[in-house]
Amino acid sequence: MAELAVQTSGLSKSFGEIQAVTGLDLAVPQGEMFSLVGPDGAGKTTAIRMLCGLLRPSAGSGRVLGHDLAGASDKIKRSIGYLPQRFSLYGDLTIDENIEFFAEIHRVRSFRARRDELLDFTRLAPFRKRLADRLSGGMRQKLALVCTLIHTPRLLFLDEPTTGVDPVSRRDFWKILSDLLKTGITIVMTTPYLDEAERSSRVGLMNEGRLMTAAPPAEVKALMKGTVVEIVSNDALGARAVLRGLPAAREVHLFGDRLHIVVDDMEKDLPAVEARLGRAGIAVLDRRAVPPSLENVFISVTRAAAKEVSS
Q1: Which of 108, 166, 111, 113 is nearest to 142 (CA)?
Q2: C-alpha distances in Å from residue 49, one per residue of 206, 277, 281, 283
Q3: What is this structure's pTM?
Q4: DSSP characters for the chain?
Q5: Cβ count near 212 (within 10 Å)
Q6: Which of 216, 241, 265 is the last residue of a domain?
Q7: Residues 38-63: pLDDT tens digits?
Q8: Where does residue 90 fall: left (phi above 0), alpha (psi -120 to 50 degrees), or beta otherwise?
Q9: Could you give the number of structural domains in the chain?
Q10: Which CATH number goes with the domain that contains 133?
Q11: What b/e readout covers 112-126, taking b as 16+ CB neighbours within 10 angstroms?
């Protein structure tokens, strides 16, 4: 079994009366990509900042690359790379100059060979003399990643690295992360994009400061309660409006010209769905059960947790 890059027990953080993270128990093996998924305010960024040694935990314990969070935060900072949601590039410096600046911060003296390697790796080499202010959003994120990697960290923390980036740049960024994993680096990231999280070795679902589950994507999907049914009709928009509020259709989502609904029991609930559509003059052309997305699972797990709390 691989050694653990990250291990926490009961890690918690409060800001006055606000409990941002509660009882975080986490184990991330070296060489893994782990994604922490949850809505805004779930506690993802606070958890990452504690693991980076930037925030002191209110309770609990943890180790990062073998270093204790409580007494070795400086050693942790030297061993990791951290890409926050807003990485501070200097717009009046070129790509090369930004990298040199961050190399100096990390006390990397012989950085030029590493810089050239990373620029080729991220395909930024042709633009190395361009000012950071003149880069696209995707190129800025690539440059931020290069600056984060200049000191060759063993563990990389990424806080929503592709938020606000166009789909093509997101795809390129993920290709870079995939190639980084082949070098043996460990990646811990947060993301609001559930489709991105499915590319990780394991996924942690976080809500209201608590980690609800952490497992490979397939195992997380197995937690889904109910069945996702794809419906093809002659009026997808109308079908969505008609089915909203129907008890038999627990969730209703539009995917292009198709509708995805979640039912508790397909044999029992689907006739009620089709009857409601029929009364509205909407014809069902096709229907079939489809695998749940992580979004479906997240909603299912949070609802189940809410029911446990209320009962």
Answers
A1: 166
A2: 15, 49, 54, 52
A3: 0.86
A4: -PPEEEEEEEEEEEETTEEEEEEEEEEEETT-EEEEE--TTSSHHHHHHHHTTSS--SEEEEEETTEETTT-HHHHHHHEEEE-SS----TTSBHHHHHHHHHHHTT-SS-HHHHHHHHHHTT-GGGTTSBGGGS-HHHHHHHHHHHHHTT--SEEEEESTTTT--HHHHHHHHHHHHHHHTTT-EEEEEES-HHHHTTSSEEEEEETTEEEEEE-HHHHHTT--SEEEEEEES-HHHHHHHHTT-TT-SEEEEETTEEEEEES-HHHHHHHHHHHHHHTT--EEEEEEEPPPHHHHHHHHHHHHHHHHH-
A5: 19
A6: 216
A7: 888 899 999 999 999 999 999 999 99
A8: beta
A9: 2
A10: 3.40.50.300
A11: eebbeebbebbebee
Q: Domain residues for 38?
A: 4-216
Which tokens belong to 171? Answer: 């795809």
Q: What is the pLDDT of residues 172-221, one digit of tens each?
A: 888 899 999 999 999 999 988 888 888 899 999 999 999 999 999 999 99
CB atoms closer than 10 angstroms to residue 104: 12
Report the alpha-carbon distance of residue 201 to residue 221 in Å, rounded: 14
Same domain for 207 and 179?
A: yes
With a CB cutoff of 8 Å and minimum separation 6, the contacts of 126 are none
Structure token pair of residue 192: 């609001």
Same domain, 233 and 102: no
